[in-house]
Write a structure and sequence with these properties.
The protein is about 35% helix and about 15% strand. The protein is of the alpha+beta class and about 130 residues long.
Length: about 130
């Protein structure tokens, strides 16, 4: 069975080879180097499920890489990395993220823990 190459940013099937392979995705292709694609059928549907499930509780209002507002460049870019939602201000931040994903995932984890602690504290105060 041949696997399709699907741009995760636009959902387009890519006809040409992409430029670089990482553990979970390929960079380049239809987005001019700013997007990411996976070689797996159904990956787009799975990513949509991850985004739908994790999106409402996403703890940051800013880009995990640049610190800029998520809506500053026309809306947040949702990206799924190892079944985790990561939001960026632009597609260009994905490459920076992939160089040091653990560093940026820790920022998300820390923000989620802080939000949970604040929520717990608010319940205790009531």
């Amino acid at each position: 069975m041949q696997l399709n190459r699907i741009c995760l940013s636009l959902g387009l099937v890519l006809a040409s080879a992409l430029t670089a392979w990482s553990a979970h995705a390929m960079e380049g292709g239809c987005c001019g180097g700013g997007g990411a694609a996976q070689t797996a059928q159904g990956s787009t549907d799975k990513n949509k499920e991850v985004i739908a499930k994790q999106g409402p509780a996403y703890p940051l209002k800013t880009c995990v890489v640049s610190g800029g507002d998520l809506g500053a460049m026309g809306g947040a870019v949702d990206y799924v990395y190892k079944d985790r939602l990561v939001r960026f201000c632009c597609k260009g931040c994905i490459k920076k993220f992939e160089k040091e994903p653990d560093t940026y995932l820790k920022k998300i984890d820390d923000a989620a823990k802080k939000a949970a602690d604040e929520k717990s504290s608010d319940k205790k105060d009531k």
